[in-house]
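Following up on my earlier thread - several people asked me to post the actual chain instead of describing it. Fair enough. Here it is, all 338 residues.
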Amino acid sequence: MQESQRRPSSAMPADAPRGVRTAYRVQNGVRDAAAALARRRGWTPALLTYPGYGTPRGARVLGRVLLAPRGTEPSERVGLPGWRRFLTLELPDAEVEVTLGGRSTSVRTDASGFLDAVVDADLEPGRERVHLAVPGRAALEGVVHVAPADAVRGVVCDVDDTVWVTGLRTPLLAAWRTLTGSSANRHPVPGICALLQALVAGDRTTPVVYLSNGAWNLNGPVVRFLRRHRLPAGAVLMTDWGITPDRWFRSGQAHKRASLERLAREMPGVRWVLVGDDGEHDPEIYRDFARSHPGHVAGIALRQVGRGAQPRVEAEGDVPVVLAPDGRRLLADLAPHL
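Reply from S.P.:
Thanks for posting it. Predicted structure:
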């Protein structure tokens, strides 16, 4: 991997709707005013780390810088209802020292306080520790999941209604679960653990990427849920919610498509099993990716979220596509094709 980082930017496309441009400036202006007030009250930069992924040549390191009162650490907040996790004050253009594989480098956060840096390093397959530090705070340890150079299979898995039950087809119920619940009272999709554990076959170096349209604010609860239910550990890629430089709301489809394209570039030897559900756009996104990258997809498994759906096996070219209401049936129908 070649070293890169996301640069802080508030530039907006020239063709962005006027209302979006105005709202984006107002949003950032309110944030900056709140940040100035918080600094006067003694708040300082603090870190969150998110699980990243890599290869023996380097890794994608993910995190975020927030302002927080002295003596408090955002990373230690657990058991909070979802709505409280959105009460954060992100810090753009913050300098972060990243240490990975014995190498340290300085990177800066983007306009949303987000850190997304690819750092070259000599790494061993498996879990690698990465340390992030900002002035005035102790370094925070994160993790990147490093795939072996000869990895031939990996797993990309959606989260909502694929890993845990959200009920996105009933938006009010889904919003209630997201905003009032914590990871401790969320329920796994039946059979999902058996499916994912079988796909990694007990190999902790198999690349696993959880690809979600959920907000980065919920990354910690997702990671704790995976650990609690003994799902395979892996990178967790999420999105920003809110106004973007050119849209009223982020595009979940664009996020997933871009993430798959990036995985294909960064791990060209890996054939992915794509796991999702038929409640939103996973079928279309996964099929499109299989058509455009036939050598990068080993299979597609889609959980059926509607009542009365009938399991079936289809194909997208040479790629098997299995649909079933739970993980165990998906595994039974997919296994003969892998």
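The chain has two domains: 4-146, 153-337. That should answer part of your original question.
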